[in-house]
Amino acid sequence: MGFVRTTPPRPVEVTAVLPELAPLARPAIRLHPRPGSPSVRDSSVGGPLLWPTEEPWPHCEDAHLHVDTGFRRSPTEVRLQNRLQSRWRPDERPPVLTPEEEALKARNAAWLAERLDAGPPWPAECPVPMLPVAQLFLRDIPLLRPPGQADLLQILWCPYEHEPNYKPSTALFWRSAAEVVDILATPPEPYEADYPGYVPEPCVLAPEAITDYPNSLDLNPELRRMLEDWNRWQAAGAGVDSSYAEYPRDFYSIHLGNAPGWKVGGWPPWGRTDPNPRYCAVCEVRMVPLLTIASWEWDGGEGHSWAPQEDQAAALAGSHYAGQDPSQPTKVEVGSTDNMQIYLCPVSPEHPHTDLIQ
After folding, report:
1. SUPFAM superfamilies annotated for this entry (predicted)?
2. Which of 251, 267, 292, 268 is CA-nearest to residue 32?
3. All structural domains of the chain with their residue ranges
């Protein structure tokens, strides 16, 4: 990995206030994706996959609604727009395109011409080629528990919302990197995406091992009552701002529990619903969090305490011009700025995975 991101020390040691939380600590790896140019040999978000030419590229076979919402654009157009936005300035001077961006612009012009020539109703493709979401090598993410001799995890999704939960459908593949000899150079891409937030910006990673504590909703009633006991916080000498005296649980939720952003392992985020356990469709074992796909790396306001030390200045800067928000480096936006959680069977990683929007 070519760069480092470091989560600042938490303002309070969790177990100093609630020693009862110590048994609930889980290892996690914050991925810290940042825009870059990953290769097929790199762990990445939205980057190219180490995909063998002899293996068919995954396509989504589900039914897709093809109502023109005005949001749909080709993945090429989305990526080009993201690149240009990253260089926009308040003086409104247009950015100069690189040769690669000129090629993207030409590809998108050809796509638009094809669309206009076809006329309404707009072309509908089915099955839909899936888009890369994440590629994770075991050497970089040692928390992965791959089956057999596999050392590589690849996750893709269909960039359309699917009923009944209105989220992209996902596909997961384990493989041995050493067995991929002939690499697919130009994978197929979908004709369009439902929303720009379903086209991940290619990002390199700076994996960081952390200790993750549960969302307060995952705690039993007794532990939640302990969190809400201001006297306990004071007795621990935590030095928590007195503005939290009425609702100390908020301090835990904002600064201590459930690390935000893209992460492997750890605890799942909740909010859209109460905790909703997932069970393996094959063996009925309770599934565990594999990957959190986050719309934001940290929340605004006080939530910027989770911004890496290397990004604190940008996080504290407040407003960001033309969509250049450092807390959304992947440009992914799932649900209503929610998170997608990928779950895995702990007995056998080869059993079907499941996903959930929270």
Report:
1. Hypothetical protein YwqG (SSF103032)
2. 292
3. 1-30+212-357, 35-206
Give yes or no for a cis peptide into 190 (omega within 30° of 0): no
Say what the pLDDT of residue 138 is. Answer: 98
**Around Cβ 116, how many Cβ atoms within 10 Å?**
9
Task: Identify the bridge partners of residue 289 per DSSP, sorted by sequence position.
Answer: 343
* pTM for the predicted model, two decimal places: 0.90
Instruction: List, as own/partner pairs, every contact residues 215-220 make where C-beta atoms lie below 8 angstroms and the sequence separation is at least 24, other chains included.
Output: 215/253, 215/257, 215/258, 215/267, 215/268, 215/269, 215/270, 215/275, 216/249, 216/252, 216/253, 216/257, 217/270, 217/271, 217/274, 217/275, 218/267, 218/268, 218/270, 218/275, 219/24
DSSP state letter for 293: E
CA distance 132 to 190: 11
pLDDT tens figures, 72-109: 788 888 888 887 777 776 666 777 788 878 887 887 78
